[in-house]
Amino acid sequence: MGYYHFEVTDFLEDRYFKSWVFTPSRESCEFWDNFLLTHPEKAEAITSAKLVLLGMRTEMEADFPTDGQVTAMLDEIQSRKNTASRFPMRGLWVRLGASLSAAAVVLLAISWLRQPDRHDSHVSYEELLSAVEAPLTEQTNTTTAPILLTLPDSSTILLQPKSSVSYRKDFARHALREVYLSGEAFFTVTKNRRRPFVVYSNELVTKVLGTSFLVKAFEDARQVEVSVKTGKVSVFPRTDTEVCEGIAQPELAGTIITPNQKAFFSREQVQIRKELVDSPEILASAVLPAPLLKFQDMPVSELFGNIEQTYGIDIVYDDRLLGQCLLTASFTTESLYEKMDLICKGIEANFEVMDGRMIVSGRGCN
């Protein structure tokens, strides 16, 4: 059952959902508890639909709403929504922000539909919606340049064009600082170990305590990309129930991404792979040791150690074969990849990037 794609109105029509609301069993309670753990972003829609059904039961003397009643109600709402041209509901708002509003619209519509003179009523869809406050604050960048947003906790978001973010209006009071992203954004998160910062982007979840990182998650893209500038983040699919259960805890679980690393999440295969960013940079925290520019007869093990500390990247090699190889060279403006290429040529070795690390292999030095 594809409940992940359900909105409030879909839950209202689903017999299994209605059965759980009115006559919960151990099996149905376990199912919906597990579903909410896996898809926490659907909590608003489920809570809203549940409130609507309980309100309908009160109105209809504890009877299940018939399919005809629900269908008529939804048709009426949809008809009025189609005529409400001045109230567009698009993109991220439709998926994430409309849950509570839709529930309130349904509740109001129930009352309206039960009025004897409802056919003579001129209540508009806009008037129904105006009675409800949107549960989420949404920001959409419709310009051609990035815009900088500041969240209530002083974290910032550099939002790229054609991208949207959404977050609760009471963002600052929740144990989890949750943001929903569609598109591309660079986050600089204010550190707070007791209140993890969580970004939901398509099927991927990114959790941090305080760091800066980039997320690319466009609707039509086959994969989601997360790259880290400072600190570290954990990424995991929403289907990872074990990790989702502990999402409010300060510990980072899932796949850990550190500076100069990035993760690609395949939406089709539901897999995460780590790589290095295209242009690794010297870490701002790497004051000591300073990057080596000139060296003579230096053991490669020392050179690799310097690179690991200044770039925050692991270099894997056989120390017995390569560690004591001596190298003399000087660097100027070479990138990390160019440096590694020169080093490997000097010791007759090769390197490749695998799982966010550099793997060096060679015959060794006599």
Protein structure class: alpha+beta
- What is the end-to-end distance? 63 Å
Q: Could you please say which CATH topology of the largest domain applies here?
A: Jelly Rolls
Uncertain regions spanning at least 5 consecutive residues? 59-64, 80-105, 107-134
The Rg value, from CA coordinates, equals: 27 Å
Order of helices and strands: HHHHHHHHEEEEEEEEEEHEEEEHEHEHEE
Quantity of strands, as a count: 18
| Overall pLDDT level | 77
Q: Indicate the proportion of strand residues.
A: 25-35%
Q: Into which percent range does the helicity of residues fall?
A: 25-40%
CATH architecture field of the largest domain = Sandwich
Number of helices: 12
Shape: elongated
Which terms would index this structure?
alpha+beta; Jelly Rolls; Phage tail protein beta-alpha-beta fold; 13-stranded mixed sheet; elongated
How would you portray this structure in words?
By secondary structure, the protein is α+β, with helices and mostly antiparallel strands. It folds into three domains: 3-130, no CATH class; 136-276, Jelly Rolls; 294-362, 3-Layer(bab) Sandwich (Phage tail protein beta-alpha-beta fold), CATH 3.55.50. The chain contains twelve helices and 18 strands. It has helices at 8-13, 15-22, 26-38, 43-59, 67-82, 91-97, 99-113, 125-130, 241-245, 300-311, 319-322, 336-346, and strands at 136-141, 147-150, 156-159, 163-168, 177-188, 197-201, 204-208, 212-217, 223-230, 233-237, 255-257, 261-266, 271-276, 294-299, 315-316, 326-330, 349-354, 357-362. Strand 6 (197-201) and strand 7 (204-208) form a beta hairpin. Helix 4 runs parallel beside helix 7 and helix 5 packs across helix 7. The longest helix has 17 residues, at 43-59. The chain starts with 7 loop residues before the first helix and ends with a strand.
